[in-house]
Amino acid sequence: MADLLSIILAAGEGTRMKSALPKVLHPVGGLPVVSHVLRTAKSFGSRIAVVVGPGHEAVEQAVTRFESNAFIARQLERLGTGHAVQQAREAFQNETGNVLVLYADTPLVTEKTIGQIVGRLDAGADMVVVGFRPHNPTGYGRLLTDGNRLLAIREHKDASDEERRVGLCNSGIIAFNADTLRAVIDRIDNKNAKGEYYLTDAVELAVADKRQIDYIEADASELVGVDNRTKLAEAEATFQQFKRAEMMENGVTLRDPQSVFFSWDTECGRDVTIFPNVVFGPGVKIADNVEIRAFCDLEDVVIGDGASIGPFARVRGGAELGKDVHVGNFVEVKKSKLADGVKVGHLSYLGDAEIGAKTNIGAGTITCNYDGVNKDKTVIGANAFIGSNASLVAPVVIGDGAYTASGSVITEDVPADAVAFGRARQENKADYAPKLRERALAKKAAKGK
Ligand code: UD1
């Protein structure tokens, strides 16, 4: 494959999002829209140039965080897509390979589609346009062909009634060999209905130069442009469809696919079963044979082979769960390491904890990890047994094989194999109950007078 430079256009204003956040930083599958585009470009080993508008420092930062040596071009006035590409001239001036123009607000274009157009360039085309058939073509540029070759792209505002009847539209994604781009880019003018420099005019100019122009047709679902909240929701829905399909293809059972929401980076092994209504935030890695029961919220956690989570569990903050760990209902685990075979079955909070293999955490155990200022650690050894309804006040260390009595407030370290009682001792007063009852009845009778 020839060298590739991707120019990502991101200077649009995004006013229809009605947001303080630039539109390309809104997340789809937990990842900013522009980062999806960067990832796709990078998967072809491409160099990256991004065209940003004034006041888009946050976009610049997001891009350079992703790709520290990305070329940032600034488009000070929004004069059209052709003008935007011109601003990146420094990046393509000496390019000997191919140049791919992508939109920063079109996150779901697949590697397959990009592979196809880049492949056509490598096979000798000078320029390849990605077309699609949107449900409603109004507003899009139309691909005018002779049935075989692409002759022009006509913008909606400039199109005749007959041209507007064409259903095949321009997605905006166009690949050029660098020579062709350099030959046409400065000849684009702004004599059109919008008074803008249209990148799409490159087609007619290249046709006039007798260059070889191709187009392909891609599925409309991957070409949704996120420029309002409805489109954002549409992109999210499509992303989830893609991700669910990928998971199932890789051996994951989804009991009710429509109710499981993945993050862009969710990783699942084989024979994982995910019950309905599970939401994944970023950073979840799941090994084989894991069961995630209904209504779990997982983020930033590594889960070992054979573990079972939920229902109604929340696990987050860099948690590490070993093999065969069981995290049951109404349990929250934050930034804690649970070694192989740890069980925390019911109604517990484990925060900033380290728990040794096969330890059992009783129902209602709470690690008191925060004093209002500092976060402290709770360390529990292997094969320990924490009785139900314990408060473990961090920092505290409980040794291997130790027990803590139910209802204890543990404020001091517990040595290995010790039993800690952190509660008042029980006292039974013989025959005292009838006296208490009498006293209560007398009180009631006195009130009644
Ligand atoms: C453009 C295409 C149209 C296509 C449509 C697909 C042109 C002239 N028209 O329409 O054929 O059907 O996309 O969505 O190319 N941008 C800049 N600077 C600018 C203008 C745009 O960076 O001066 C960027 C935007 O951030 C966005 C992309 O280019 O990522 C498309 O801009 P937009 O205004 O949405 O598209 P149109 O020009 O209307």
Verbal overview:
The protein is α/β, with parallel strands linked by helices. Helix content is 22%, strand content 29%. The chain has 10 helices and 38 strands. A 10-stranded parallel sheet has the order 12-15-18-21-24-27-30-33-36-38. Strands 14-17-20-23-26-29-32-35 form an 8-stranded parallel sheet, with no helix packed on it. The chain has a 7-stranded mixed sheet with strand order 5-4-1-6-10-7-11. Bound molecules: uridine-diphosphate-N-acetylglucosamine (UD1). The site of uridine-diphosphate-N-acetylglucosamine has 27 residues, from strand 1, helix 3 and strand 10.
How confident overall, as mean pLDDT? 97
Which stretches are poorly predicted, pLDDT < 50 over at least 5 residues? none
Assess the beta-strand content as a share of residues: 25-35%
The strands making up the biggest β-sheet line up spatially as: 12-15-18-21-24-27-30-33-36-38
CATH topology of the largest domain: Spore Coat Polysaccharide Biosynthesis Protein SpsA, Chain A
Q: What would you report as the Rg, rounded to the nearest angstrom?
A: 31 Å
Number of strands: 38
Largest sheet: 10 strands, parallel
Gross CATH architecture of the largest domain: Alpha-Beta Complex
Total domains: 2
State the end-to-end distance: 99 Å
Tally of DSSP helical segments? 10
Shape: elongated
Bound molecules: uridine-diphosphate-N-acetylglucosamine
Helical content band: 10-25%
Give the CATH class of the largest domain: Alpha Beta
